[in-house]
Amino acid sequence: MMGIYRGIRKMIKTIVYKWPIIRRAIPMLLSHESRLFEHSLQIDLLQKQVKSLMDEIIAIKGEKSTFGLLDLFSKELLSDTPSTSVAWQEFHKWLASSYDQFAESLGKYIKGEQLIHLLTLLQIIVARNAFKDETTKLHFFEKAEECGVHVLPVHFYSPIPNTQELPTAIWQHRFDRTSSFQLNAQAQLKLLDRIAKWAQEMSDTPHRSSSEYCWENPAFSPGDAIVYYSMIREFKPRVIIEVGGIFNYGGG
User: Fold this and answer.
1) How confident is the model at residue 154, as a pLDDT?
2) Which one of 18, 46, 62 terminates a domain?
3) pTM higher than the cut 0.90
4) At a CB cut-off of 8 Å and minimum separation 6, what does 43 contact?
5) CA triplet 125, 60, 96: central angle to 5 degrees?
6) Which pLDDT tens digit goes with each residue over 203-234?
7) pLDDT at 64
8) What's the domain count of the chain?
9) Chain-centroid distance, C-alpha 181
10) Secondary structure, 3-state, the chain
């Protein structure tokens, strides 16, 4: 029986190889078969890697901490490796697309003192980064206003007082009923209208300078400078006494 099969195979082989097109096609088929085999090996390897990764995820979920994946992600954010920057970029993309749901879920599941504590922690993160330089502080302030809030640092020169430093008695007195302390808002508005004509003279003030007053300085804001200059031009005092007149316009 084996002899018959061998004879048939030999006959088929002889007939096939007499056709030139088949002789050329067979090596090509063998080559494609070899490539398919290599690809199948690569697919098997990828499947094994995916399975290994899924096993790790399942193992993490089985730990006491139900937020194993969050732990891994936070470690990546807090590390200092080449992939840390990528992790922060991905976190930014996620938050940019999910902040509404994030805020809603936070308010739903975190309440009371725990909510206050969590918001305080987030506030620390914001404050340390939003006020690290003048450019960032100004841009952040503008973006916060677009959201309908004011976020300001506690500062000696700020018009908003630090209420932690105010005595309790201050909340028990009506200053608007003090005869010697009258804001007279209408008179102030008239005064501003009166001196406004001088403001245009400061239009050539440089944004930055090391030798004269400039808009971008940490001590004397543009609003203060314009009012100060305009009052001098309007009332023309013979003597001006300044205390701590750094970055002032009057000396320019």
Assistant:
1) 87
2) 62
3) no
4) none
5) 35
6) 999 988 888 889 888 778 888 889 999 999 99
7) 47
8) 2
9) 44
10) CHHHHHHHHHHHHHHHHCCHHHHHHHHHHHHHHHHHHHHHHHHHHHHHHHHHHHHHHHHHHCCCCCCHHHHHHHHHHHCCCCCHHHHHHHHHHHHHHHHHHHHHHHHHHCCHHHHHHHHHHHHHHHHHHHCCCHHHHHHHHHHHHHCCCCCCCCCCCCCCCCHHHCCHHHHHCCHHHCCCCCCCHHHHHHHHHHHHHHHHHHCCCCCCCCCCCCCCCCCCCHHHHHHHHHHHHHHCCCCCCCCCCCCCCCCC
Task: Judge whether 170 lies within some domain.
Answer: no
Q: Mark which of 10, 43, 62 sits at the end of a domain.
A: 62
Per the CB < 8 A criterion, the answer to whether 252 and 246 are in contact is no
Indicate if the pLDDT at residue 2 is higher than 70: no
> Residue 203's domain spans which residues?
183-252
Contact 192, 223 (CB under 8 A): no
Stretch 113-123: mean pLDDT: 95
